[in-house]
Design a protein that fits this description.
Layout: E1 13-15, E2 23-29, H1 37-58, E3 64-72, E4 77-84, H2 99-112, E5 119-122, E6 126-131, E7 134-139, H3 140-149, H4 153-166, E8 174-178, E9 188-191, H5 195-199, E10 213-226, E11 236-240, E12 243-247, H6 252-259, E13 270-282, E14 287-290, E15 296-304, H7 306-313
Parallel strand pairs: 1-7
Antiparallel strand pairs: 2-4, 2-8, 3-4, 5-6, 6-7, 8-9, 10-11, 10-13, 11-12, 13-14, 13-15
Helix pairs in contact: 1-2, 1-4, 2-3
């Protein structure tokens, strides 16, 4: 199991959104005064190659350099900086806020997402992954980007190589990532017993008909464009994240409350709901794409009047 701790937080919770900016520290843990030169050099090369592969997948026009800025003793640490190259790099913020978070998300998926006890809660701004009392908080933008890139062969192969190398040195007891060399403990830390699992490259393409689609349920806010106030399979018209969608509402309790006039709604109001839908894997684009014909509102949590929305926007 991955373990972690950050300053000001209890053991068991980490906010990966703290890994921002163009600099990060990688941490080789254990009772070390040195690391085997082969392990150190080759793990840094593999780590840098992974970062370049992520960069290439997201922003292929933007070249980067990955440099070791400094070495710190204690366990053993290297300060890594991503340096955008060229004129575009002066203005590009595309990766700055979640490059390192993406990397950690790929590692998390290899270790825990096949665990049946894992629970994933998705909201509009973050994703919380919980398993065995442990919790990861991942910015929604980073999680969605990771979902799109998880089938990228270069990223997965380079990540495997990184942990294959560090796993070859028995003196390394853990591998961590943290924002600053001043952090006593890494924000994100992987124990050595997980190195072999992470070094195994997962299948990069769906293997059969049951894997080229998947069903997801997310808690979202839908703005009402057209309502059908009677029970049935008629599809309501909504706006979700600026895009029009249509979906029936299956929550009978919601309709009962409407009939009792406990809820009054109209066009422009919104609903907090659990929205289920199917995603199909696009082999050419190597991403999962929402199927617009499958949207269903499974549960309505609460209505939000238009006046409340306007006051929140102000």
């Amino acid at each position: 199991m991955i373990r972690w701790r950050s300053a000001g937080e209890s053991m068991g919770t980490v906010d990966l959104g703290k890994l921002k900016g163009n600099q990060v520290v990688i941490h080789y843990g254990g009772k070390l005064t040195s690391v085997d030169a082969y392990t150190f050099a080759n793990s840094l090369i593999s780590f840098a190659d992974t970062i370049r592969a992520i960069n290439q997948a997201i922003d292929p026009k933007q070249e980067i350099e990955v440099r070791v800025e400094a070495i710190d003793t204690g366990s053993f640490r290297a300060v890594i900086r991503r340096i955008p190259k060229g004129f575009e790099g002066l203005f590009s913020k595309r990766l700055e806020d979640f490059l390192w978070t993406l990397l950690c998300t790929f590692i998390i998926e290899r270790v825990i997402l096949n665990d049946p006890k894992t629970v994933i809660n998705i909201s509009s701004d973050q994703v919380i992954i919980e398993t065995d009392g442990s919790k990861y908080i991942i910015p929604r933008a980073a999680f969605d980007q990771a979902e799109q890139l998880k089938k990228n062969p270069e990223i997965q192969k380079k990540l495997s190589k990184t942990f294959e190398v560090v796993g070859g040195d028995p003196a390394i007891e853990n591998f961590g990532i943290t924002p600053s060399v001043k952090d006593e403990s890494p924000l994100f830390q992987v124990p050595s017993e997980e190195f072999q699992k992470i070094s195994l490259t997962p299948a990069l393409l769906p293997d059969g008909p049951n894997e080229d689609s998947r069903t997801r349920t997310e808690k979202v806010t839908l703005v009402i464009l057209k309502a059908w106030l009677r029970r049935g399979s008629a599809k309501w018209a909504f706006e979700w994240n600026g895009h029009p969608i249509s979906a029936p509402i299956k929550d009978l309790t919601f309709f009962e409350r409407l009939e009792r006039r406990e809820i009054l709604i109209g066009a422009g109001d919104a609903l907090d709901v659990d929205l289920s839908f199917t995603q199909n894997f696009d082999v050419d684009a190597r991403i999962y794409v929402n199927d617009p014909s499958t949207f269903v509102v499974e549960r309505v949590h609460k209505p939000i009047s238009r006046s409340v929305q306007l006051s929140l926007d102000d």
